Amino acid sequence: MKKTIFVNLLYPSMRSSRFFLCQAVVCFVIAVQAQAQMQDIVRYSEEYVHAVGDNAALFSGRMQTRLPGNIESLYLRERGHIERNSPTGEVMPRPVSPFLSYGVGDLFYDGVLYTGVRMRLDLCRDELVAAPSGDSPSGVVLDPTRFGYADLRGYRIIHVPARSPLGLPEGYYLQLHEGSHDILKKELFVLSPGENMQFSRGYLRYYVEKDGAYHRVGRRNGPVLRLFGDRRSELRAFIRSSGVEMWNDTERALVEIVREYERLNDR
Q1: Full-prediction pTM beyond 0.85?
Q2: Is residue 140 over pLDDT 80?
Q3: Cα gap 179→158, rounded to integer Å
Q4: Hey, which residues does 108 pair with through a beta bridge?
Q5: From residue 175, how far is each of 66, 127, 240 by CA, in Å?
Q6: Domain ranges of the chain
Q7: What is the three-class DSSP state of 153?
């Protein structure tokens, strides 16, 4: 009887020891897992820093999301790239692989010039996106308030803020020519709602600077000739002799005409 009492008195102690042992094991496992997670975090952080290199400060914004229906957006293509794939023969960019949508260029951001940055200009959402490496199709939307300029795909990209003294709508612009009379281009596309979602051009405008203001010009000769009316006859002769065509190749023709006007006035 005494022996039984002794054993029974031991059982609570044994159960308590097992309980504390289990607690110790659980705490040990949690500590090991936490250490492993911390090591993973450190490793991923090191891999991230290695991937972005000196450009780590660029990738602190929000990640760009996909369009409705998981449709790939339209992005800026190489300067001079032409795709006449619309019924009217108008130049329309096509959606491409997310990996192919990026180009490599220089970016002036937060007062610092970054070189060799993977970027893409979204022509649907008017967003400039930077990606940390070639292994990821996603990227970070750059903050326009911190943006200076970017050289990408043969273009100089600038951003005009809201209520700018330039008198232009807010957004990203392509600077086609920088000289006595700068040329800017603004282009946006719209994704139509519904089952058959398709892109259509929602905005295409060209602006030429003269006398401190930007003037909208069309895709025909008339507006630019009226803007440079003091050299109208010389420019008309230049257009005939050079064969430049505003309607079929607006970018190149507009640049050539403005350069000719600058040359005439610099003589």
Answers
A1: no
A2: yes
A3: 15
A4: 113, 149
A5: 27, 16, 26
A6: 2-43, 56-169
A7: coil
